[in-house]
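User: Just a sanity check before I run the rest of the batch. Below are the C-alpha coordinates for the first item. I only need the designed sequence back.
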Protein backbone atom coordinates (compact mmCIF):
# COMPACT_ATOMS: atom_id res chain seq x y z
CA UNK A 1 0.00 0.00 0.00
CA UNK A 2 2.80 2.40 0.89
CA UNK A 3 4.64 1.77 -2.39
CA UNK A 4 1.43 2.06 -4.41
CA UNK A 5 0.42 5.42 -2.92
CA UNK A 6 3.96 6.80 -3.11
CA UNK A 7 4.36 5.82 -6.77
CA UNK A 8 0.96 7.29 -7.63
CA UNK A 9 1.79 10.62 -6.02
CA UNK A 10 5.20 10.64 -7.72
CA UNK A 11 3.41 11.26 -11.01
CA UNK A 12 1.51 14.35 -9.82
CA UNK A 13 4.40 16.76 -9.24
CA UNK A 14 6.96 15.12 -11.51
CA UNK A 15 7.37 18.11 -13.84
CA UNK A 16 7.12 20.87 -11.24
CA UNK A 17 10.88 21.52 -10.84
CA UNK A 18 11.38 21.64 -14.63
CA UNK A 19 8.55 24.03 -15.53
CA UNK A 20 11.07 26.64 -16.76
CA UNK A 21 12.59 23.94 -19.00
CA UNK A 22 9.13 23.06 -20.37
CA UNK A 23 8.46 26.75 -20.99
CA UNK A 24 11.57 27.06 -23.13
CA UNK A 25 11.26 23.70 -24.88
CA UNK A 26 7.62 24.21 -25.95
CA UNK A 27 7.99 27.97 -26.45
CA UNK A 28 5.04 28.91 -24.22
CA UNK A 29 4.27 31.35 -21.41
CA UNK A 30 4.70 30.68 -17.69
CA UNK A 31 0.96 30.16 -17.19
CA UNK A 32 0.78 27.74 -20.14
CA UNK A 33 3.75 25.69 -18.89
CA UNK A 34 2.06 25.44 -15.47
CA UNK A 35 -0.71 23.39 -17.11
CA UNK A 36 1.69 20.45 -16.83
CA UNK A 37 0.75 20.45 -13.14
CA UNK A 38 -2.72 22.01 -13.11
CA UNK A 39 -3.97 19.50 -15.73
CA UNK A 40 -3.17 16.61 -13.38
CA UNK A 41 -4.89 18.34 -10.47
CA UNK A 42 -7.93 19.15 -12.63
CA UNK A 43 -8.18 15.49 -13.65
CA UNK A 44 -8.08 14.39 -10.02
CA UNK A 45 -10.73 16.99 -9.13
CA UNK A 46 -13.14 15.76 -11.82
CA UNK A 47 -12.61 12.02 -11.25
CA UNK A 48 -12.52 11.82 -7.46
CA UNK A 49 -16.25 11.55 -6.79
CA UNK A 50 -16.96 9.12 -9.69
CA UNK A 51 -14.18 6.84 -8.44
CA UNK A 52 -15.57 7.12 -4.90
CA UNK A 53 -18.94 5.90 -6.17
CA UNK A 54 -17.23 3.07 -8.09
CA UNK A 55 -15.39 2.03 -4.93
CA UNK A 56 -18.73 1.69 -3.14
CA UNK A 57 -20.27 -0.38 -5.94
CA UNK A 58 -17.47 -2.62 -7.25
CA UNK A 59 -14.49 -4.62 -5.94
CA UNK A 60 -11.56 -2.24 -5.54
CA UNK A 61 -8.57 -4.40 -6.49
CA UNK A 62 -9.43 -4.48 -10.24
CA UNK A 63 -10.01 -0.71 -10.14
CA UNK A 64 -6.56 -0.25 -8.60
CA UNK A 65 -5.00 -2.41 -11.32
CA UNK A 66 -6.75 -0.53 -14.12
CA UNK A 67 -5.93 2.86 -12.60
CA UNK A 68 -2.25 2.13 -12.10
CA UNK A 69 -1.80 0.79 -15.63
CA UNK A 70 -3.62 3.79 -17.15
CA UNK A 71 -1.47 6.24 -15.17
CA UNK A 72 1.67 4.50 -16.43
CA UNK A 73 0.41 4.36 -20.03
CA UNK A 74 -0.48 8.07 -19.97
CA UNK A 75 2.96 8.84 -18.53
CA UNK A 76 4.68 6.97 -21.36
CA UNK A 77 2.52 8.82 -23.89
CA UNK A 78 3.42 12.16 -22.29
CA UNK A 79 7.12 11.34 -22.48
CA UNK A 80 6.85 11.28 -26.28
CA UNK A 81 4.68 14.41 -26.71
CA UNK A 82 6.24 17.02 -28.99
CA UNK A 83 3.61 19.73 -28.36
CA UNK A 84 2.30 21.23 -25.13
CA UNK A 85 -1.30 20.31 -26.04
CA UNK A 86 -0.44 16.59 -26.19
CA UNK A 87 1.70 16.91 -23.07
CA UNK A 88 -1.23 18.44 -21.17
CA UNK A 89 -3.62 15.78 -22.52
CA UNK A 90 -1.38 13.02 -21.19
CA UNK A 91 -1.00 14.71 -17.82
CA UNK A 92 -4.77 15.26 -17.59
CA UNK A 93 -5.35 11.55 -18.26
CA UNK A 94 -2.96 10.67 -15.46
CA UNK A 95 -4.96 12.90 -13.12
CA UNK A 96 -8.22 11.19 -14.10
CA UNK A 97 -6.91 7.84 -12.84
CA UNK A 98 -4.97 8.98 -9.75
CA UNK A 99 -8.13 8.55 -7.56
CA UNK A 100 -7.97 4.81 -8.30
CA UNK A 101 -4.81 4.73 -6.16
CA UNK A 102 -6.03 7.21 -3.53
CA UNK A 103 -9.79 7.45 -3.01
CA UNK A 104 -10.44 3.81 -3.97
CA UNK A 105 -7.52 2.50 -1.95
CA UNK A 106 -8.70 4.41 1.14
CA UNK A 107 -12.17 2.88 0.74
CA UNK A 108 -10.62 -0.56 0.35
CA UNK A 109 -8.55 -0.17 3.52
CA UNK A 110 -11.61 0.97 5.48
CA UNK A 111 -13.44 -2.20 4.44
CA UNK A 112 -10.74 -4.82 4.96
CA UNK A 113 -8.96 -3.57 8.09
CA UNK A 114 -10.15 -3.56 11.71
CA UNK A 115 -10.37 -0.08 13.33
CA UNK A 116 -7.18 -0.42 15.38
CA UNK A 117 -5.13 -1.38 12.32
CA UNK A 118 -6.82 1.20 10.11
CA UNK A 119 -5.51 4.10 12.19
CA UNK A 120 -1.94 2.81 11.89
CA UNK A 121 -2.15 2.12 8.15
CA UNK A 122 -3.76 5.47 7.35
CA UNK A 123 -0.82 7.14 9.12
CA UNK A 124 1.44 5.33 6.64
CA UNK A 125 -0.90 6.36 3.83
CA UNK A 126 -0.41 10.07 4.62
CA UNK A 127 3.36 9.59 4.91
CA UNK A 128 3.35 7.84 1.51
CA UNK A 129 1.61 10.82 -0.12
CA UNK A 130 4.30 13.13 1.24
CA UNK A 131 7.12 10.83 0.15
CA UNK A 132 5.57 10.43 -3.30
CA UNK A 133 5.17 14.17 -3.73
CA UNK A 134 8.79 14.73 -2.76
CA UNK A 135 10.01 11.78 -4.82
CA UNK A 136 8.32 13.10 -7.94
CA UNK A 137 9.97 16.48 -7.58
CA UNK A 138 13.39 14.90 -7.02
CA UNK A 139 12.93 12.47 -9.92
CA UNK A 140 11.86 15.22 -12.30
CA UNK A 141 14.55 17.74 -11.51
CA UNK A 142 17.43 16.03 -9.73
CA UNK A 143 17.83 12.30 -10.34
CA UNK A 144 17.38 12.84 -14.08
CA UNK A 145 19.08 15.90 -15.62
CA UNK A 146 16.48 18.66 -16.17
CA UNK A 147 16.80 18.56 -19.95
CA UNK A 148 16.05 14.81 -19.79
CA UNK A 149 12.71 15.24 -18.00
CA UNK A 150 11.10 12.80 -20.44
CA UNK A 151 13.13 9.97 -18.90
CA UNK A 152 11.69 10.90 -15.51
CA UNK A 153 8.21 10.20 -16.88
CA UNK A 154 9.38 6.80 -18.12
CA UNK A 155 10.94 5.98 -14.73
CA UNK A 156 7.76 7.01 -12.89
CA UNK A 157 5.68 4.87 -15.26
CA UNK A 158 7.88 1.85 -14.54
CA UNK A 159 7.61 2.38 -10.78
CA UNK A 160 3.82 2.69 -11.07
CA UNK A 161 3.47 -0.51 -13.11
CA UNK A 162 5.60 -2.54 -10.70
CA UNK A 163 3.91 -1.26 -7.54
CA UNK A 164 0.43 -1.64 -9.06
CA UNK A 165 0.92 -5.25 -10.13
CA UNK A 166 2.50 -6.20 -6.80
CA UNK A 167 -0.31 -4.49 -4.85
CA UNK A 168 -2.98 -6.18 -6.97
CA UNK A 169 -1.30 -9.54 -6.42
CA UNK A 170 -0.62 -9.23 -2.67
CA UNK A 171 -3.45 -7.11 -1.25
CA UNK A 172 -6.09 -9.35 0.42
CA UNK A 173 -9.36 -9.88 -1.36
CA UNK A 174 -12.37 -8.10 0.07
CA UNK A 175 -14.82 -10.00 2.22
CA UNK A 176 -18.59 -9.90 1.98
CA UNK A 177 -20.01 -6.39 1.70
CA UNK A 178 -22.13 -5.01 4.51
CA UNK A 179 -25.15 -3.17 3.11
CA UNK A 180 -25.30 0.36 4.58
CA UNK A 181 -28.40 1.22 6.60
CA UNK A 182 -30.78 4.01 5.62
CA UNK A 183 -29.38 6.46 8.17
CA UNK A 184 -25.91 6.26 6.68
CA UNK A 185 -27.06 7.23 3.17
CA UNK A 186 -26.16 10.89 3.34
CA UNK A 187 -26.09 12.53 -0.07
CA UNK A 188 -23.61 15.10 -1.34
CA UNK A 189 -26.30 17.80 -1.42
CA UNK A 190 -27.12 17.06 2.22
CA UNK A 191 -23.49 17.60 3.12
CA UNK A 192 -23.14 20.80 1.08
CA UNK A 193 -26.14 22.29 2.89
CA UNK A 194 -24.35 21.91 6.23
CA UNK A 195 -22.16 24.92 7.02
CA UNK A 196 -20.16 22.94 9.60
CA UNK A 197 -19.10 20.65 6.74
CA UNK A 198 -18.69 23.30 4.08
CA UNK A 199 -16.43 25.57 6.14
CA UNK A 200 -13.96 22.73 6.73
CA UNK A 201 -14.07 21.74 3.05
CA UNK A 202 -13.27 25.37 2.14
CA UNK A 203 -10.52 25.37 4.78
CA UNK A 204 -8.74 22.51 3.02
CA UNK A 205 -9.35 24.13 -0.37
CA UNK A 206 -7.88 27.47 0.71
CA UNK A 207 -4.81 25.96 2.33
CA UNK A 208 -3.99 23.79 -0.70
CA UNK A 209 -4.52 26.83 -2.96
CA UNK A 210 -1.71 28.60 -1.10
CA UNK A 211 0.53 25.53 -0.92
CA UNK A 212 0.21 24.73 -4.62
CA UNK A 213 0.70 28.35 -5.66
CA UNK A 214 3.93 28.94 -3.75
CA UNK A 215 5.51 25.61 -4.59
CA UNK A 216 4.50 25.72 -8.26
CA UNK A 217 5.88 29.19 -9.02
CA UNK A 218 8.90 28.90 -6.76
CA UNK A 219 11.08 27.58 -9.65
CA UNK A 220 10.38 30.72 -11.69
CA UNK A 221 11.20 33.00 -8.75
CA UNK A 222 14.40 31.16 -7.81
CA UNK A 223 15.54 30.97 -11.46
CA UNK A 224 15.47 34.78 -11.68
CA UNK A 225 17.77 37.33 -10.02
CA UNK A 226 18.74 37.80 -7.22
CA UNK A 227 18.83 33.99 -6.83
CA UNK A 228 19.56 32.70 -10.37
CA UNK A 229 19.63 29.09 -9.14
CA UNK A 230 20.12 26.07 -11.37
CA UNK A 231 17.36 23.49 -11.74
CA UNK A 232 19.29 21.06 -9.52
CA UNK A 233 19.60 23.66 -6.77
CA UNK A 234 15.91 24.56 -7.07
CA UNK A 235 14.99 20.88 -6.80
CA UNK A 236 17.08 20.53 -3.63
CA UNK A 237 14.95 23.23 -2.01
CA UNK A 238 11.96 20.88 -2.28
CA UNK A 239 13.53 18.68 0.39
CA UNK A 240 11.71 20.85 2.94
CA UNK A 241 8.56 18.99 1.83
CA UNK A 242 9.61 15.99 3.90
CA UNK A 243 8.49 17.92 6.98
CA UNK A 244 4.95 16.83 6.13
CA UNK A 245 5.75 13.29 7.28
CA UNK A 246 6.16 14.57 10.83
CA UNK A 247 3.73 17.50 10.93
CA UNK A 248 0.55 15.49 10.21
CA UNK A 249 0.65 13.28 13.34
CA UNK A 250 1.83 16.24 15.45
CA UNK A 251 -1.09 18.36 14.24
CA UNK A 252 -3.49 15.61 15.27
CA UNK A 253 -2.07 15.56 18.78
CA UNK A 254 -2.23 19.36 19.01
CA UNK A 255 -5.87 19.32 17.90
CA UNK A 256 -6.72 16.70 20.53
CA UNK A 257 -5.18 18.88 23.23
CA UNK A 258 -6.10 22.43 22.22
CA UNK A 259 -9.07 21.88 19.93
CA UNK A 260 -9.44 21.98 16.15
CA UNK A 261 -10.35 25.68 16.14
CA UNK A 262 -7.13 26.82 17.81
CA UNK A 263 -5.12 24.44 15.64
CA UNK A 264 -6.64 25.82 12.43
CA UNK A 265 -5.99 29.41 13.55
CA UNK A 266 -2.38 28.56 14.38
CA UNK A 267 -1.88 26.79 11.05
CA UNK A 268 -3.37 29.71 9.12
CA UNK A 269 -1.15 32.18 11.01
CA UNK A 270 2.00 30.15 10.29
CA UNK A 271 1.04 29.88 6.62
CA UNK A 272 0.45 33.64 6.48
CA UNK A 273 3.93 34.21 7.92
CA UNK A 274 5.40 31.89 5.27
CA UNK A 275 3.78 33.92 2.47
CA UNK A 276 5.30 37.12 3.83
CA UNK A 277 8.76 35.56 4.27
CA UNK A 278 8.74 34.29 0.69
CA UNK A 279 9.26 37.88 -0.48
CA UNK A 280 12.72 38.06 1.12
CA UNK A 281 15.58 38.38 -1.39
CA UNK A 282 17.75 35.84 0.46
CA UNK A 283 17.74 32.09 -0.14
CA UNK A 284 17.82 31.39 3.59
CA UNK A 285 14.64 33.45 3.98
CA UNK A 286 12.89 31.56 1.17
CA UNK A 287 13.88 28.20 2.68
CA UNK A 288 12.56 29.36 6.07
CA UNK A 289 9.34 30.44 4.34
CA UNK A 290 8.93 26.99 2.78
CA UNK A 291 9.53 25.26 6.10
CA UNK A 292 6.83 27.39 7.67
CA UNK A 293 4.57 26.77 4.66
CA UNK A 294 4.85 23.01 5.13
CA UNK A 295 4.25 23.32 8.87
CA UNK A 296 1.22 25.58 8.43
CA UNK A 297 -0.31 23.72 5.51
CA UNK A 298 -0.11 20.23 6.96
CA UNK A 299 -1.43 21.55 10.29
CA UNK A 300 -4.50 23.06 8.58
CA UNK A 301 -4.97 19.96 6.40
CA UNK A 302 -4.82 17.49 9.30
CA UNK A 303 -7.01 19.62 11.58
CA UNK A 304 -9.64 20.15 8.84
CA UNK A 305 -9.92 16.44 8.05
CA UNK A 306 -10.08 15.51 11.73
CA UNK A 307 -12.74 18.11 12.53
CA UNK A 308 -14.78 17.10 9.48
CA UNK A 309 -14.95 13.44 10.51
CA UNK A 310 -15.76 14.30 14.12
CA UNK A 311 -18.57 16.62 13.03
CA UNK A 312 -20.58 13.83 11.37
CA UNK A 313 -22.46 10.83 12.66
CA UNK A 314 -23.03 9.38 9.17
CA UNK A 315 -21.82 9.89 5.61
CA UNK A 316 -18.10 9.92 6.33
CA UNK A 317 -17.20 8.39 2.98
CA UNK A 318 -19.02 10.96 0.91
CA UNK A 319 -17.83 13.77 3.19
CA UNK A 320 -14.21 12.77 2.64
CA UNK A 321 -14.78 12.49 -1.12
CA UNK A 322 -16.27 15.99 -1.07
CA UNK A 323 -13.29 17.25 0.92
CA UNK A 324 -10.80 15.77 -1.54
CA UNK A 325 -12.78 17.20 -4.47
CA UNK A 326 -12.58 20.76 -3.12
CA UNK A 327 -9.02 20.17 -1.88
CA UNK A 328 -7.73 19.49 -5.39
CA UNK A 329 -10.01 22.13 -6.83
CA UNK A 330 -8.16 24.56 -4.57
CA UNK A 331 -4.84 23.29 -5.92
CA UNK A 332 -5.96 23.67 -9.52
CA UNK A 333 -7.34 27.16 -8.89
CA UNK A 334 -4.13 28.09 -7.09
CA UNK A 335 -1.88 27.03 -9.95
CA UNK A 336 -4.13 28.66 -12.56
CA UNK A 337 -4.93 31.95 -10.79
CA UNK A 338 -1.42 32.44 -9.44
CA UNK A 339 0.01 31.92 -12.93
CA UNK A 340 -1.96 34.88 -14.21
CA UNK A 341 -1.07 36.90 -11.10
CA UNK A 342 2.63 36.08 -11.53
CA UNK A 343 2.60 37.16 -15.18
CA UNK A 344 0.80 40.41 -14.34
CA UNK A 345 2.23 41.51 -10.99
CA UNK A 346 5.16 39.17 -10.35
CA UNK A 347 5.69 37.48 -7.00
CA UNK A 348 3.68 40.18 -5.21
CA UNK A 349 0.63 39.06 -7.19
CA UNK A 350 1.09 35.45 -6.08
CA UNK A 351 1.38 36.60 -2.46
CA UNK A 352 -1.77 38.70 -2.74
CA UNK A 353 -4.06 35.92 -3.95
CA UNK A 354 -2.60 33.51 -1.38
CA UNK A 355 -3.24 35.86 1.55
CA UNK A 356 -6.84 36.24 0.41
CA UNK A 357 -7.43 32.45 0.36
CA UNK A 358 -6.15 32.09 3.94
CA UNK A 359 -9.43 33.68 5.06
CA UNK A 360 -11.08 30.26 4.69
CA UNK A 361 -9.06 28.29 7.28
CA UNK A 362 -8.92 31.36 9.55
CA UNK A 363 -12.73 31.71 9.49
CA UNK A 364 -13.27 28.00 10.10
CA UNK A 365 -10.81 28.04 13.01
CA UNK A 366 -12.37 31.14 14.56
CA UNK A 367 -15.89 29.68 14.41
CA UNK A 368 -14.78 26.29 15.78
CA UNK A 369 -12.94 28.01 18.62
CA UNK A 370 -16.02 30.06 19.51
CA UNK A 371 -18.16 26.91 19.51
CA UNK A 372 -15.64 25.12 21.70
CA UNK A 373 -15.59 27.99 24.18
CA UNK A 374 -19.39 28.13 24.32
CA UNK A 375 -19.62 24.36 24.75
CA UNK A 376 -21.53 23.72 21.49
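Assistant: Here's the designed sequence for the first item:
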Amino acid sequence: MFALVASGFTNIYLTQPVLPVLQQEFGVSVAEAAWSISAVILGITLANIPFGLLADALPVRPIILLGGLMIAAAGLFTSTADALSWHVAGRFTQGLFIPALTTCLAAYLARVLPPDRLNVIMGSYVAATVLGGLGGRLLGGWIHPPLHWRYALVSAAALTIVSTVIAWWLLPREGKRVRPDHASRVGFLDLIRQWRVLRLVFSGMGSFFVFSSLFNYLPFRLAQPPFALSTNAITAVYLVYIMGIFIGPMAGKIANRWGSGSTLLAGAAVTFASVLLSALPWLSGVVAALLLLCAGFFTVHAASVGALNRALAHGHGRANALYVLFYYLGGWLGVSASGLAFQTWGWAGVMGVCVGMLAFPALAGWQLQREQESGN
